[in-house]
Amino acid sequence: MIELIERASQFLPRTAVVDQGKRFSYRDLLDRSEQIAHTLLGNKSDLQSQRVAFIIPPSFDYLAIQWGIWRAGGIAVPLCTSYPFPSLQYVIEDTQASFLIVSPEFEDLLSPYRDSQSLAYLSTNDLENNSSSSLPDVNPDRGAMILYTSGTTSLPKGVLSTHSTITAQIKSLVEAWHWSENDHILSILPLHHVHGIINVNSCALWSGATVQFLPNFDAARVFEIFCEGEVNVFMAVPTIYFKLIAYYETLPESKQDEIRNALKKFRFMVSGSAALPVSVMEKWKSISGHTLLERYGMTEIGMAISNPYEGERRPGHIGQPLPGVSIRLCDENGQEVPVGQAGEIQVKGENVFSEYWEKPEATAKAFTADGWFKTGDIALVEDGYFRILGRDSVDIIKSGGYKISALEIEEKIRTHEAVKDCGVVGIPDEEWGEKVVAAIVPNQEIEIQALKTWLKTELPSYKIPKEFLFLEELPRNALGKVTKNELKKLF
């Protein structure tokens, strides 16, 4: 039984989704997802955990397809709508997807798969099966979704979560953040990450609340929607709050007053996926009257730690463990550290993922012998609140809410004919949290603009360095390893 979908029958007439001005009820969502499930099944009774990759803009269709995959017994593999073809190809082929569902606007991009022998290519216009046969009974311990994370290796790893994992992640947040059917949330986050999929969409739909989609971020449109008076919950990354503040400051005083009055009526607002600069938190509070709730999570664990819904939300801190989640801090030898000392955050609970897809060694390495997941994030506890100090790897950059592997970007840049070597790091930035920058050792003349143009065909835009530096050689230690901290100083 997929509990999230079962619960929808309690809310049949209520509005589940607002998309492009249209309203869809929970009954509409159940009906459409059932139709999609039958299309995927064809003559089969159960997809038996076959992977179904799909590239759909944030919309009612996105949710119906995700639910349809689950109801057919498949594993959902949401693809990033801003990825170039090589990045999408990697995910499709790494998961050995049996199906690829493509929205019309992405059909040119994914046309190489149209005549594929290895998977069934479906346009969203093909999902019209009206069979009345029964759908499979899906065990909660079966795989539900594979999301990709950079981790600490150069190639992204597929994080497999079961239905029971997803249910645990949702229940924990619904309890901690007081979700109810009276909530109405604006969904603007990418839907190939837990932040958008679980924290926003799934928590709302579990609760009988309404999800309103805005497919592309636009500060003016966000404020327009806020002023319409229906939205009362908002979740975003620090970069988005930074952009909203910057736009707000350009507006005439009368418009600012209207926005301030609308924001004060909200139930609550969340910031996550990257550290929130205190300056942004304070500025947003002066506009909205709300202290943003900061929390901590990652693809492998959903959310694990959160500032309290009621009580002090402490700037620069991520709060306390969420319901059902166990947290400990350990030293490099795996021993718990005394209170007040820094250690690696380790997590245990039903919220933790099953495995890295088809990577048993990486999975084993990610867990301790007694079953705790090692996050790689270093923190300490101050007066009962966790505070993140940084990562144990300089090769992970947190920028604009994304966790980015510097090694992946370096490998890609090195394939350019004009590049002899390169080093990629993240440097502190108020808007992005960390800004991706690259030092290049060229072997022939190259213009930065030409390099950026080429990178746009190879990498998603958020992975493309925002600054470049040309060096004769990269700083290295005695063992020949690039010293990333020295490299950062050069920027």
Model description:
There is one protein chain. The strands form 6 sheets. Strands 2-1-10-9-11-12-13-14-15 form a 9-stranded mixed beta sheet. A 4-stranded parallel beta sheet has the order 4-3-5-6, with helices on one face. It is of the alpha/beta class and about 500 residues long. It is globular and about 65 Å long. Helix 7 crosses helix 9. Among the domains are: about 205-390, ANL, N-terminal domain (Rossmann fold), CATH 3.40.50.12780; about 395-490, GMP Synthetase, Chain A, domain 3, CATH 3.30.300. It has 14 helices and 25 strands.
Descriptive tags:
alpha/beta, 14 helices, 491 residues, four-stranded parallel β-sheet, Rossmann fold, GMP Synthetase, Chain A, domain 3, ligase
SSE inventory with pairings:
Blueprint: H1 3-7, E1 15-19, E2 22-25, H2 26-41, E3 51-55, H3 60-71, E4 75-78, H4 85-94, E5 99-102, E6 120-123, E7 143-149, E8 157-162, H5 163-176, E9 184-187, H6 194-206, E10 210-213, H7 219-228, E11 233-236, H8 238-248, H9 253-264, E12 268-271, H10 278-288, E13 293-298, E14 302-306, E15 320-321, E16 325-330, E17 343-349, E18 355-356, H11 360-366, E19 373-382, E20 385-391, E21 396-399, E22 402-405, H12 406-414, E23 419-429, E24 433-442, H13 448-456, E25 467-470, H14 484-490
Parallel strand pairs: 1-10, 3-4, 3-5, 5-6, 9-10, 9-11, 11-12, 12-13, 24-25
Antiparallel strand pairs: 1-2, 7-8, 8-18, 13-14, 14-15, 16-17, 17-19, 19-20, 21-22, 23-24
Pfam families: AMP-binding, AMP-binding_C
GO molecular function, one term: medium-chain fatty acid-CoA ligase activity
Protein name: Long-chain fatty acid--CoA ligase
